[in-house]
Amino acid sequence: MSTVIDTAPYTRFHKRLALACSGGPLLDGYILSIVGVALIGMQPQLGLSTADVSLIGAAALVGMFVGGAVFGVLTDRIGREVMYTADLLVMIVCSVASFWADQVWLIVALRFVLGMAVAADYPIATSLLAEWLPTRHRGRLLGKQIVAWYAGSVLAYVVGYAFLQLGGEGSWRWMLASSALLCVVFLLIRRGSPESPLWLAQHGRQDQAVAVVRKHLGVKVTADQLLAGEPDSADERLTAGSVRVLFSPAYRTRTLFCGLFFLCQVGPLFAMLTFGPQILGSFGLPGGTVMDTLGTGLISMVFLLGCYPALRAIDGVGRRPTIVWSFALMIVPLALLGVWPSAPAAVALVALCAYAFLCGGPNVLDWTYPNELFPTHIRATAVGFATSVSRVGAAIGTYLLPLSLTDLGTGPTMLIAAGVTAIGLLVCAFWAEETKGRSLQAASGSPRREAVHSL
């Protein structure tokens, strides 16, 4: 059943909310990518070992694992709006503190907390956005959140390159601190963003839910109309933010699907973005402060460009065929580099760009699927859980990639990445559902939902 939100006209309010919610992904892309450039100067200045570099690269991802798991649950229990700006304040403090950090343990600790704050933003912002969007625009605007991620990543390499040119390798402190400025910008953009009317209605605040819809959408609605198609409110209050519900018979398969496809996608992806210069260097691209950094920036740009045809595909051919075919094709360039580790640098760059472009399908569905497949009372919990699981893969990949390049070589490393992607293909082939054109309540509905009520 559709609600007034599902059928509402698309307005400037939706555009502003989508921009405000894009802050988390953009900052994630920036914070995770800028460290790859900063390590160029950080490693010789601080005398970092390979293990130190791996720890610094993986620290934010481990923090995201913790943050996604904890703050997704809290978001379903205490609301989307409560923590909407607090996480940005934490990012500002950690970014500024990074300027003075000169010990490995302190840099690792600050990036761990940064990761927690970034991961907190995903369940807060994407669930809030999903619960305000009309059906026709939901897939596109949720998918565009990953565009913000790659925009942040590209910006990080541009800023990093500029710092290297102007300040040399010693400018790495300014690189790490620069994310504070972006946080301030999004703090200003987020001023006045409303709470989710669905969350308000489910938590006994029906008058506020009705008022906020009238204010921002300009239509009159009742609480019953807002909650049409949702589970009974009494059950929601009992199970809001419950990880147990995610693994109940009603949602177990969806939970595994969202977590595993996300993990298999970002494991190789994050490692490549974080240590792009090292990968390209292994194929003979001149190292230093220019060519390898610009080459990785180009790959990041292609990741971004690949999202646009995928955004059209998920609303055209559908979510399921888009993600299945994308994973299948992503294997090809990785396998090519795996069996041809002596490929010229130009061939390696083209292959990695092809992989980046083909990643568009799962990229735009990273937050679309978990927001569509789970109802309001566990939506943020599901997004947080999927984010946490994905960052396990990302952290492992980021930690192991430089060690693998050193100990195993380029070919085996690329074959391992291809194997992880192949697992993602199997997960999608068996479990991916089609949610195109369905209302949020219909997409998140489950024929086995009654099993949740017994918990």
From TrEMBL:
Membrane topology according to the record: Multi-pass membrane protein
Protein location: Cell membrane
Domain of life: Bacteria
Main subcellular location of this protein, as a coarse class: membrane
Keyword Membrane: yes
UniProt keyword Membrane, yes or no: yes
Endpoints of the signal sequence: none
Membrane-spanning residues: 17-41, 53-75, 82-100, 106-125, 146-166, 172-189, 256-273, 293-311, 323-340, 346-365, 377-401, 413-432
Keyword terms, alphabetized: Membrane, Transmembrane, Transmembrane helix, Transport
Pfam families found in the cross-reference section: Sugar_tr
Domain Major facilitator superfamily (MFS) profile: 17-436
Cross-referenced PANTHER family: SYNAPTIC VESICLE GLYCOPROTEIN 2
Protein name: MFS transporter
